[in-house]
Design a protein that fits this description.
Layout (H helix, E strand, L loop, with lengths): L1 H27 L2 E8 L14 E7 L9 E7 L13 H9 L3 E5 L9 H18 L5 E12 H11 L1 H5 L8 E9 L4 H7 L9 H4 L3 H6 L13 E6 L4 H16 L6 E4 L4 H6 L7 H10 L2
Parallel strand pairs: 3-4, 3-5, 5-6, 6-7, 7-8
Antiparallel strand pairs: 1-2, 2-4
Length: 294
Amino acid sequence: MRRFLLLMPVALLLAVVVLVLATEYVAARPSRRTKDLAYLPTSVAGFDKERHILDVYSPNKASPSAAGYPVVLFIHGGSWTSGSKNIYTFIGRRLAKQGVVAVIINYRLAPAVQVPEQAADCARALAWTVQYIAEYQGDPARVFVMGHSAGGGLAALLATDDDLLARHGLPQNPVRGAIMNDPAGLDMYSYLKEMKYDGDQQYLVPFGKDPAVWKAQSPIYKIRPGIPPFLFFIGGETYPSISSSSGRFRDRLKTIGQPAPYTVIPGRHHIPMVLQMYWQHNIIYKGLLKMVGA
C-alpha cells in the first residue's frame, strides 16, 4: 500500500503530461507553424539571429475570404528583460484553430538594448507582417496587435505612435485594433517619477534615466482622435500599477470619444492572465475574435 501511495504522484504527473501533449496535438492539427522567420534582412548591421525572428501560425483550411484571415501580432512580456516567442506556441495554435493568422515575435531585450530599440524591433516585425502575411493566408488590411505585460505596452505603442512606424517602413499605421492583456508600461513617465514600489530601480535598466525617454515610450501620452480601438482585459488581482494605468488609459480614450471595452477578470493574478489563453474558449479569445471579425 505504501509503495502504491508513493507511486501515485508519479502516475498523476505522467497523466497530466499525456493530457497536455494530447491537447497540443489536437490543437496543432488544424494549424501550420512556420518557425524562425527573420523580419529583418540578415545583412542589416546589428541583426540578431535569436531576437529578430518570428513565427507564423496559419489555419490549415483555406480562408473563406479571398482577402485572407484576420491577423494578430502577439508581443510577449517579461519586464523588457526576458521572454521568448517559443513560450507562447499555445496562443499561436489556439488563434489559428479559430480562424486567425497569428504572428508571435521576438525582440531584443534589456540590458543589451533599451525600450526605444525594442519598440523599433516590434515596428519592424509589424512592417514584415504587412508585407508578407498574405503568403500565409493573412489579410494585410486586417492586422491587429496584442500583448501581455511589457508586451502590452509595446503593442500600445504600435497602435498609437505613427512616427515610430513611419521610421520603420510604415508611412500609414496598419493596426486595426489593439488587445491589451494586463498591460505594463502604458505610463512609465508617471511610474518612474514616483518610484513608490520596492524594486522599481530595475526598470531604469530598460527605460534609462531620462524622463523625456520615459514619456516618449509611454503610449498614454500618444492618445488622440483617429487611433485604432482598444480592448482591455485586466486581472482582478494584478499589480496596482497595471490596473491604475490601464484605467487611466481607458479614461483618456473616453475623452476623445472612443470608449474601450474593459473587462476585469476576478481573482486573476498577472501571470495567469496570459496562461489562461491555453484554453480555447477563454473570455479573452471571445472578445478578441469579435474585434478581429473571425
